[in-house]
Amino acid sequence: MSALKKIIRRAKRRRRQHHQQEQGIAMDHQEGISTSKGDDVHKVVEEEEISVVNHGIKKKEKGIKREVSYKLSSFWELPEYMKDNEFILGYYRANWPLKEALFSICRWHNETLNVWTHLFGFLLFLGLTMANLVKVPQVADLFGLFTSSVLTSTERNASHDSNYQLLGTIDLKQISQQSIHRHLAADGTPAARWPFYVFLAGSMFCLLSSTICHLFSCHSHHLNLTLLRIDYVGIAVMIITSFFPNIYYVFQCEPHWQFAYLGGITVMGIFTIATLLTPSHSAGKFRGLRAMLFTSMGLFGLVPSVHAGLVNWSNPKRDAILYYEGAMALSYLMGTAFYVARVPERFRPGWFDLAGHSHQIFHVLVVLGALAHYGAALVFLEYRDQVGC
């Protein structure tokens, strides 16, 4: 019996030991899991801390990059799509945000005068348009620089009895009363204004599109290409619309010539615009092609001009019209020559980065040429108001 009891007690002891061992293993396993979880949590915390630190570094680096990107760059630092004039060596804006590009209108860089010359031209033509619409002769005449195109019928009658002269060359009394009564429209209706305003609208579109292009083309490659094409289209539109007042008013009594000449320049303009809208033709290497297209459109005007001169050589306003149109042609041709030749910066690279380079000269001459044509359009319009068809 005693031996049996000993065997039973020994078995119970072994079972207790085995049970304790199992519990110990389970506890160790749980501790191991909690330890590994703790390590994982610690690891996650460390990763989060590292991530936060790295994020701060990234922000700092980003801030430095933004500060650097808003600084003016040299020609060699530019992306390829912005490298157009190798003789302008510095003061470039490259990949600027739109907001910074807008505010750069008040900063000095190599586009500042390009922006302001045509912005001033746009505002000037906007003012002239409003002055003609609301009939403010003194402003529309640029305070005596041109003959007024907005005279009322009473003022026109008064002008016939005055010694008013156009730049000292044209006396309106030279137009005889007999000629006026012979040619004046039966209903006394003044000449149509729409060709005159078509020209003003085309000029404003050109000048405004140029301003926007030079201000925002530094933003991105895509926007640069888009704005360049709009800028070239603006030049073509200005050339096309410049023909409308002189052809319409000179050939007002010959509508078949009106249609032929206006239709011809419109078709040529549409072809030019289609060519300029081709992305590949926006590249700098096609500068000569663009200049040739613009010049060809301008030279087309010689045909109706010669025709009009032969038919109306005895017109008393001939000298004034030739003066203005000659000044316009000279301004445009000189501007194109500077644009293509890249003079004067070609001879002194880097000297004319901020002021005096060829594109700025081109802009000034474009505005002067447009003003000269405005003067001619006033003469055409006033003559048709007085004489009719």
What is the tally of helical segments? 13
Gap from first CA to last CA? 150 Å
**N-to-C order of helices and strands:** HHHHHEEHHHHHHHH
As a percent range, the share of helical residues equals: 55-70%
Instruction: Note the main sheet.
Output: 2 strands, antiparallel
Keywords: Membrane, Metal-binding, Transmembrane, Transmembrane helix, Zinc
Protein name: Heptahelical transmembrane protein 1-like
Binding site for Zn(2+): 214, 359, 363
Organism: Linum tenue
Q: What this model shows, in words?
A:
This protein is mainly α and 389 residues long. The chain folds into 2 domains: 1-68; 102-387, Up-down Bundle (Rhopdopsin 7-helix transmembrane proteins). The protein has helices spanning 2-69, 98-103, 112-133, 137-140, 153-160, 177-183, 194-216, 221-250, 255-276, 287-300, 302-311, 318-341, 358-387, and strands at residues 165-166, 170-171. A two-stranded antiparallel ribbon has the order 1-2. Helix 7 (194-216) runs antiparallel to helix 13 (358-387) and helix 8 runs parallel beside helix 13 (358-387). It is elongated and about 150 Å long. 33% of the residues are buried. Residues 33-69 and 148-186 have low confidence and may be disordered. It is found in: Membrane. Residues 9-18 have a biased composition (Basic residues). Its main location: membrane. Pfam families: HlyIII.
